[in-house]
């Protein structure tokens, strides 16, 4: 144990990486199990999107509070609390007997996940010097990215050969190991000065985000009632406006609101935020659609579906090795304009394949090769785009506003991912209704991919407003 403690600095990123690994694994492992979960819980397949959107919603809502809790109670205690909350949510989700019980578990998981990543990054910033931070951050993210890589295959294997409940129970041993190591390795940084938190703004923003998110979720249900979701959307917009004026008043009084909107005045920040949100709305939907297509339209098992997603996961890792070279070669503006065009072509490829009548006559290996080649393009350029967005967004943010910018960007990103799932589910429902085809049939996926391809093709219009010089100081 003494030797382990002597290697404290080396082990901090690894222990924090376990939390990120668990979070990333959970975000990828669920998609392959959706059909089996829907059958076990006696719920329509697309209604299981609530298990994804509810998690992303609470993740977005609780991000602003993570810094306050860490400053008040210390980074070690907050990180341990986040792991415990995530573990509790995993156990509840794994024991769910209906969709409502599952949503409660996922809401709790999201609350824990909202503190894992921001507090982990805060610890890295405090524990390492600027020269050491890059190596530490790379070690931290590499462990986390393993969750993205093994998530689909592991989820498919657990669902096919064991039970879908184990996709949540697999978090238990990881969380227990991480909790033990947290108290051995992670320092408990704490602010002496007690800062006040904008609780009113926190609840106003949470209620607004929840109303809008669940309103869109309800709209993507089969045979939904028009009145209730529109009422939720109107309530959400109204509460959002109240929060806006509340935040403006606090800024006038020089009081920090729960979610600071002043950072959106920074040109590169709001352009990246807007373009990134539009890109996530369309491109990230493929992660939700592909496992459903493989299982519901093509008849593959959850395990085979997980294997089919391996090329996309592999392309994530490849892109990380090429990212720095691509930035130096082409610059932020060119990457952000041309990457969506190639992602749009990949989505168009999925559409053409889905409409190809000879597809059903091919075997698994042939499907794997055809889909895999397109997924390599989709995963590689999506990852390059996300990495560019996540880097450029802070290019012109002053250091004293970096914490507020991190919270704002994290909230918008998670809400964007939640809306992307609802948007794709709504497209499936809408296109199947208009074309009078099976909801999860090949023709429905054809139209959805076609629409997503067209919308992704339009996203570079936002990035045309960027200057060639934007972010160049980061590259140098």
Account of the 3D structure:
79% of the residues lie in helices and 0% in strands. With 476 residues, it is an all-alpha fold. The protein has three domains: 1-187, MFS general substrate transporter like domains (Growth Hormone, Chain: A); 198-257; 266-476, Up-down Bundle (Growth Hormone, Chain: A), CATH 1.20.1250. It is globular. The model has no long low-confidence stretch (mean pLDDT 83).
> SS-based structural class?
mainly alpha
N- and C-termini, Cα separation: 42 Å
Label the overall shape.
globular
Q: What is the rounded Rg?
A: 22 Å
Detail the poorly predicted runs: none
Helix content: over 70%
CATH superfamily of the largest domain: MFS general substrate transporter like domains
Mean pLDDT: 83
Count of all domains:
3
Largest sheet: none
- Report the order of strands and helices: HHHHHHHHHHHHHHHHHHHH
Q: Tell me what portion of residues adopts beta-strand conformation.
A: under 5%
């Amino acid at each position: 144990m003494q030797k382990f403690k002597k290697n404290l600095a080396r082990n901090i990123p690894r222990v924090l990486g376990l939390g990120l690994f668990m979070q990333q694994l959970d975000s990828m492992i669920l998609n392959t199990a959706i059909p089996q979960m829907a059958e076990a819980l006696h719920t329509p397949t697309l209604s299981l999107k609530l298990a994804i959107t509810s998690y992303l919603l609470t993740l977005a809502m609780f991000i602003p509070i993570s810094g306050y809790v860490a400053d008040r109670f210390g980074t070690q205690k907050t990180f341990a609390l986040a792991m415990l909350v995530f573990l509790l949510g995993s156990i509840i989700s794994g024991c769910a007997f209906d969709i409502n019980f599952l949503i409660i578990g996922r809401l709790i998981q999201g609350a824990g996940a909202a503190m894992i990543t921001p507090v982990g990054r805060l610890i890295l910033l405090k524990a390492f010097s600027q020269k050491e931070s890059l190596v530490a951050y790379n070690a931290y993210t590499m462990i986390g990215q393993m969750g993205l890589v093994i998530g689909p295959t592991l989820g498919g294997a657990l669902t096919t050969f064991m039970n879908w409940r184990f996709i949540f129970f697999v978090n238990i041993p990881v969380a227990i190991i991480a909790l033990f190591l947290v108290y051995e390795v992670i320092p408990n940084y704490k602010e002496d000065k007690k800062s006040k938190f904008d609780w009113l703004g926190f609840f106003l923003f949470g209620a607004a985000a929840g109303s809008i998110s669940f309103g869109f979720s309800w709209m993507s249900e089969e045979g939904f009632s028009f009145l209730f979701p529109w009422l939720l959307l109107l309530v959400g917009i109204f509460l959002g406006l109240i929060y806006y004026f509340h935040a403006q008043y606090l800024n006038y009084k020089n009081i920090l609101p729960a979610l600071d909107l002043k950072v959106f005045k920074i040109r590169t920040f709001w352009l990246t935020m807007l373009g990134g949100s539009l890109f996530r709305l369309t491109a990230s939907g493929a992660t939700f659609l592909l496992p459903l297509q493989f299982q519901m339209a093509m008849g593959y098992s959850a395990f085979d579906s997980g294997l089919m997603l391996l090329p996309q996961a592999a392309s994530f890792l490849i892109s990380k090795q090429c990212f720095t070279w691509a930035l130096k070669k082409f610059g932020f503006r060119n990457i952000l304009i041309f990457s969506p065009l190639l992602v749009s072509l990949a989505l168009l490829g999925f559409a053409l394949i889905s409409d190809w009548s000879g597809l059903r006559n091919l075997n698994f290996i042939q499907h794997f090769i055809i889909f895999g080649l397109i997924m390599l393009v989709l995963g590689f350029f999506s990852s390059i785009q996300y990495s560019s967005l996540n880097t450029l967004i802070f290019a012109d943010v002053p250091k004293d506003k970096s914490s507020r910018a991190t919270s704002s960007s994290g909230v918008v990103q998670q809400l964007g991912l939640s809306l992307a799932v609802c948007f794709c589910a709504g497209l499936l429902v809408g296109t199947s209704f208009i074309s009078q085809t099976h909801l999860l049939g090949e023709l429905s996926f054809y139209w959805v991919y076609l629409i997503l391809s067209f919308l992704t093709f339009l996203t570079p219009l936002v990035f045309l407003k960027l200057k060639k010089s934007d972010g160049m100081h980061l590259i140098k």
